[in-house]
Amino acid sequence: MRSQLDETPVYQDLEDAGEREESATHGLRDLMVEYWKPMLTMAGLVIPLNIINYTLLTYMPTYLETKIGLDSDKSLIVILVGELVMMALLPWCGHYSDIVGRRRMWWFSMIGLFVFAVPMYWLMGQSFVGALVGFAVLGLLYIPQLSTISATFPAMFPARVRFAGFAVTYNVFTAAFGGTAAPINEAVVGSTGFLEFPAVYMMLACVIGMVALLFLKETAGASLHGTEIPEAEPEDYGVEAIAEESAATDAAGR
Q: Residue 241 and residue 58: Cα distance in Å, rounded?
């Protein structure tokens, strides 16, 4: 199916201008020299995104059963209910980020997780109902990140190096911090008995993310065309901008 798709307008513009998109393996040194700042900024966001993801969604079943003593059926219910609620809210949060901007969504998520991580992990250790509530709250606070990564990360690079910059940064730091989150949590909790360590680990990740957010450009509503890193002006996003874009689309359709 992919072989029959037309190229996206952004990359078609590159071809029309006689330019080409850099691959993830070609010009890696030049990519790191010229775009090390957005790569570092993105790395600072990928680290908490994946530590929280793998701690909350991958390690949680093991944590609930072996550390808190919840039986396997109840543990499954906690994860299932929480993830169904998260799935239902993903598109709405993604749409809302077009109105308020990506940075505000990430700030809300980072601050919320930093404040509520330890209390919610403590609550999960009290009862089955506490586990349901605690996991749901943390999952909802994580949604503003999860619902906006596809719009936020690629827009951190200009079109010519968008694929390369995104692919290299995301995959390297996902492997380094996402793939190791569950073993680190298990090792520390198992050796120390400190049941709230996963919450503390998430808090430390949020601190890294909040530092990175200081350098993140707002891209909601910004054009992804051109040779510069996209950046939105306040008037590029919000209710008025969405209404104008919808009107323009309807006019083009007619």
A: 38
